[in-house]
Amino acid sequence: MMTQAPSRTHSLAYHAFSDEAAVMQLRCQLLAWYDANKRALPWRRAPSEWADADEHAYHTWVSEVMSQQTRVGTAAPYYTTWTTKWPTVAALADASLADVHAVWSGLGYYSRATRMLEAAKLIVHSHGGRFPRDAATLHSDIPGIGPYTAGAVASIAFNAHAPVVDGNVVRVLSRLRALGCDPKSKAASELHWSLAGRLLDVGRPGDFNQAVMEFGATVCTPQNPSCKGCPIKMHCRAHEEFFGVKEEKDAKEVSEQEERVERKKCAQCLPDIEDCVPPFPVTRYPAMVKKKAADEKSRCLFSISFLYDIYLSPSSRDCTHH
């Protein structure tokens, strides 16, 4: 299929979710996809299968921290071993650090396991064994729980209206709204959290957060995304820019008085997007930021130093290299 260059201007709302009807449709489509395609994972259970919301919160917390360490498939057996040994936060609070590290072994970053033990003790001794119900308090009061984990626990276990932003969410949002800015910049981070909050389903926030993450992990993947069968491609700016004509149609429908901006002057657009027609154009999002010159210089200096140590240093002159 022939690709086509996108319009050189767009409305100020191009990178936002401004159409309420489209937002509602997108939510329904993602949730329907998730209900039909979500992976069977040991921590995904019906609400009735948990003893209470705090047990659900504890298991969600454990699964999220472990999944940040490795792939979900690798995390699953660790989760099962951990929650079998310590099925509740109170049980974990009574564990020894040596035992916690032993079960954690293989996941790396032992400091995270240490913080989980510290957090469990705090939740039991200072919060009566109950997790804070909102993301803000989870983040501020519980050691080791950052904004992402706080949003995941609050939304999944307590049905709180709290968005999440991880690598999968960044990728999905970047393609849906054609965000060409540096995804690691402070401005981009704030934008991602704002857009995630705008999309978040009111009735099923936990399921919706999981739906977006699952979608990014299995459909809207970093390479070779499944665009052909994508159930939400009609909302995807990255797809429209190269495969569709919706943007041109929208441009004709907007009022002549609507303010528009040139792509080359837009902080959110890729600077060279008109010339980009790779095999999978949507993979241009999120933007790949070039390494700074300082990083390149550091690598060169390291290489020179490494070679000197091997071949030219006094200690190496008596060695025979094969």
In a nutshell, what does this entry contain?
Helices cover 53% and strands 2% of the residues. It is mostly helical. The chain is elongated and about 60 Å long.
Please explain how this structure is put together:
The structure is a single chain. This protein has helices at residues 20-37, 53-69, 72-85, 89-93, 97-104, 110-126, 135-141, 147-158, 167-176, 186-199, 205-218, 237-243, 246-253, 293-312; strands spanning 9-11, 260-262. The protein is built from 14 helices and 2 strands, in the order E-H-H-H-H-H-H-H-H-H-H-H-H-H-E-H. It starts with 8 loop residues before the first strand and ends in a 10-residue tail after the last helix. A two-stranded antiparallel sheet has the order 1-2. Residues 1-5, 245-257, 273-277 and 300-322 have low confidence and may be disordered. By secondary structure, the protein is mainly alpha-helical.
Blueprint (SSEs and pairs):
Elements: E1 9-11, H1 20-37, H2 53-69, H3 72-85, H4 89-93, H5 97-104, H6 110-126, H7 135-141, H8 147-158, H9 167-176, H10 186-199, H11 205-218, H12 237-243, H13 246-253, E2 260-262, H14 293-312
Antiparallel strand pairs: 1-2
Helix pairs in contact: 1-11, 2-3, 2-8, 5-6, 7-8, 8-11, 9-11
